[in-house]
Specification:
binds glycinamide ribonucleotide, disordered C terminus, Rossmann fold, 219 residues, alpha/beta, 9 strands
């Protein structure tokens, strides 16, 4: 089995990054996490990655005159390490069309809502305001339009009557930690792949697999 050389881009605490690194510790996991890059030098996730034994570097966007220059530095770091797949995990910079074109279908993201609902920021606040009964998270291939692109996997959680933004965010985050490693495994192995602007599943992966569309209770 080939393990695809993979990078994780973060901006903050990196809890999704930790779940990806932990899953990729297994020798049969189809992605190898080679480097973590943060655009913020003070991101707590950098230290967490190093503690887990993964190289972690800061490339501070403020050190660069333009977005393109910043992304050029990120691209160089990815090229130096032979990276083939990029996972955004709480990476809070909008990437340019040029960078995204370079990565094509090989850049994926996790977003804390059931896309296409609640794109952008403040997802949990808006979910509560709108009165939806079900919230969740989405792993998708990244396209230039924000929070859009072929959906690899989604997990749903209930919105409870007494939820605050914090309690809902915690429930969704827990689902994110379970979903992202599963989605990465499917995608890195080629069992889930882009066809048109949708994801199709191959081999023993089925689109009816609960791991792809929701979470089995207690898992
Ligand atoms: C996660 O909830 C992730 O879905 C979200 O930021 C959080 C990062 O947490 N991403 C976005 O909102 C991207 N638009 P983490 O750093 O602990 O993984």
């Amino acid at each position: 089995m080939t393990r695809r050389p993979t990078a994780i881009l973060i901006s903050g605490r990196g809890s999704n990054m930790v779940s990806l690194i932990a899953a990729a510790m297994r020798p049969d996991f189809p992605a190898e996490i080679r480097v973590v890059i943060s655009n913020r030098p003070d991101a707590a996730g950098l230290e967490r990655a190093r503690t887990a034994g993964v190289e972690a570097i800061a490339i501070d966007h403020k050190d660069y005159a333009s977005k393109e220059d910043f992304e050029g530095a990120v691209q160089a770091a990815l090229d130096e390490r032979g990276i083939q797949l990029v996972c955004l995990a709480g990476f809070m910079r909008i990437l340019t069309d040029g960078f995204l074109r370079r990565w094509g279908n090989n850049i994926i993201n996790i977003h804390p809502s059931l896309l296409p609902a609640f794109k952008g920021l403040d997802t949990h606040h808006r979910a509560l305001e709108s009165g939806v009964r079900i919230a969740g998270c989405t792993v998708h291939v990244v396209r230039p339009e924000m929070d859009s692109g072929p959906i690899i996997a989604q997990a749903a959680v209930p919105v409870l009557p007494d939820d605050s933004e914090d309690t809902l965010a915690a429930r969704v985050l827990d689902a994110e930690h379970q979903l992202y490693p599963r989605a990465l495994a499917l995608y890195a192995s080629g069992k889930a792949r882009v066809s048109g602007e949708r994801i199709i599943f191959e081999g023993d992966a089925k689109s009816s697999d609960p791991a792809i569309y929701s979470l089995p209770a207690g898992d």
